[in-house]
């Protein structure tokens, strides 16, 4: 493989940066959620890159489990967003602050 | 310049640009569509890394199932367009600086630790590691307990999602 692994890692770091910026700057709960998915995917890219360069399938197994957890997280998270929307009629996370002390 | 490098640059550019576009669109549906584009280019990158199984699962599970769920919820709730340039611009700039610091730190670590210098990639081993056969064998022998636990996790998530979305609480 002529591509250095650093290229994949920097792309992954950049996608993680995009996800962090999205989580911190956006106010729509669903977009915040999608940014979290982006961060999970950047971690997956790192795992697959190392797994492929080492020649071991364990990293890809880990990606499989990360995807399972991401699917569970998306289902529960979106259900929470639906329940919140039903009660407060908003998706702006600045207005959803009943847990704030 | 080899074909692999050209493909990498193309797919990486699509992934990076669609990620940036995703967090800067005010319409959540367009943001979700850019995220799907990002996941598609990631599947291409996985193929470039000889991870065939993960590439297919990425398209089916992420770009398929999870994003359909997201789009469905967006269309169900019809969120208003977000005003991206609001009065809390100071906080946004600050959080952007924090995120950029994280990126600079990661990039510094990657370029000054040279993880590639200690790796001797072998194409044959790498191709073999990514096949469905290898992953399936590992999954059903050495990793059977985590696999079953993942199944229980999905069951719990399904029940939790139904309960949360059905009942009126708060």
Question: Which terms summarize this structure?
Answer:
heterodimer; A: 101 residues; mainly alpha; Helix Hairpins; elongated; B: 170 residues; Four Helix Bundle (Hemerythrin (Met), subunit A); 2 domains
Gist of the model:
Chain A has 101 residues and is an all-alpha fold. Helix content of chain A is 77%, strand content 0%. The mean pLDDT of chain A is 90.
Account of the 3D structure:
The complex is a heterodimer of chains A (101) and B (170). With 101 residues, chain A is an all-alpha fold. Chain A has a single domain, classed as Helix Hairpins, CATH 1.10.287.3510. Chain A has helices at residues 5-25, 29-54, 58-88. Chain A is elongated. Chain A starts with a helix and ends in a 13-residue tail after the last helix. In chain A, 54% of the residues are buried. The model of chain A has no long low-confidence stretch (mean pLDDT 90). With 170 residues, chain B is mostly helical. Chain B has two domains: 3-130, Up-down Bundle (Four Helix Bundle (Hemerythrin (Met), subunit A)); 131-170. Chain B contains seven helices and no strands. Chain B has helices at residues 3-24, 28-48, 52-77, 89-113, 123-129, 132-140, 144-166. The mean pLDDT of chain B is 88.
Number of strands of chain A: 0
Number of strands of chain B: 0
| Tally of domains of chain A | 1
Poorly predicted runs of chain A:
none
| Biggest pleated-sheet summary of chain B | none
CATH architecture of the largest domain in chain B: Up-down Bundle
Tell me the greatest interface: A-B, 74 and 86 residues
Count of helical stretches of chain A: 3
Radius of gyration of chain A: 17 Å
Rough shape of chain A?
A: elongated
Question: How much strand content do the residues of chain A show?
Answer: under 5%
Distance between the termini of chain A: 54 Å
What is the level-2 CATH architecture name of chain A? Orthogonal Bundle
- Helix tally of chain B equals 7
Q: The biggest beta sheet of chain A, please?
A: none
What's the overall average pLDDT of chain B, rounded?
88
Radius of gyration over C-alpha positions of chain B, nearest whole angstrom: 20 Å
- Which regions of chain B have little confidence, pLDDT < 50, spanning 5+ residues? none
